[in-house]
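Friendly challenge for the regulars: who can give me the structure tokens for this chain first? No prize, just bragging rights.
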Amino acid sequence: MTEQELTRDVLIVGAGAAGLTAANELRKAGLSVVVLEARDRVGGRLWTDVIDGAMLEIGGQWVSPDQDALIETIGELGLETFSRYREGDSVYIGPDGVAHRFTGEMFPVAPETEKIIAEITERLDAMVAEIDPDRPWEHPRAAEWDSVSWDAWLRAQTDDDEAVRNLAFATGSAMLTKPTHAFSLLQSLLMAASAGSYSNLVDADFILDKRVVGGLQQVPLRLAERLGEDVLLNQPVRTLEWGDDGVVAHTDSVTVRARHAIIALAPVLYNRISFVPPLPRRQHQLHQHLSMGFVIKVHAVYERPFWREQGLSGTAFSPYELSHEAYDNTNHDDERGTLVGFVSDQNADDLFTLSAEERRERILESLSHYYGPEAKNPIVYYESDWGSEEWTRGAYAASFDMGGLHRYGGDLRTPVGPIRFACSDMAGAGYQHVDGAIRMGRLAAAQIIEQLRQH
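First reply, four minutes later:
Bragging rights claimed.
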């Protein structure tokens, strides 16, 4: 096989939303680009596939009203959105194991617990309001807040265990998908600041507002269409040589020479590339303090959305259940009903010690605690296991270990010679969402365009 040699103004590594956004912005500015993607598809952590005849969004899928960059892109690409089904009662299961129906945002907990949750939420909103999501490490108390775990801080506020579990859940199981003792208060505040407030983060109607007709992977697919043959799949970059005069990237069959490079991958994958010379010490240290969380996204498709007949919205929560949250995930104009449930961190690890059959049984059993016995008999069942994906290694995003954010956060986006970095894992607003990926793609492209103008 003859090796292909390409010369471009800018090389982009990774065909997710960040890389493809950057490539399109650079093209608009008249620069030549090529995107090298390790997988056999574009989209990164966005992936819509048909499984046993059902269209499933295996990766990211929701659009919330604060996600301006994503909403703008969806409109510009001519895509349509639809609202998540949410009519009727939600379900909450407390420590007694009983399913309680409720409406509104507050879980049906004892009045004293409700009061504590409201008070601590207010305290958190005030703290979050002081955090700049692009620079959380600059807060005067950043070092202090980064040295206490999210769990320890909450338990210092109250000895009400149910309140703690419900408060911890939003950034722990639901977002960072790590045990709450494994990341800091500062990391939790950043997660909330990226959504505008802690209240926004715990409001499912806000965070999980709309979906894209045909799936959110349409965004990268359409962005890639515009780039045509400048997106090359199945091309993992093995070596990246860099210096003052630019970069040379080598895959197994392509060599690309470019003046600039954008690495648009999750930081946990940088070590799959041999950098020549090696990245600076600071980068080597930084990347050892970042890791992915882990969550199983469970898709269960039924002949009809039976829960709606019971007056249920499909929205369900419990910090005591294996599936800690679940939603009506029925596709636009689909007669069938789809539920999506989530199992995260330690629970997800534990489930993978079981056989596929046992795993399915345990998860569906948990869903049946919310929706009744009919939930145990889907016509299509699928688990999105991003932890086994070679080019992802977990979900949803990378976050820092204890103390890592204030120590290294400021270096995440620092360019190294002609190399810039962009992905949702380093976003401020829109952190770990497609919105953040688009923002980071735009930022990296704008910086290169500005730099080239000055020369």
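The longest strand covers residues 4-13. The radius of gyration is 22 Å. Your move, everyone else.
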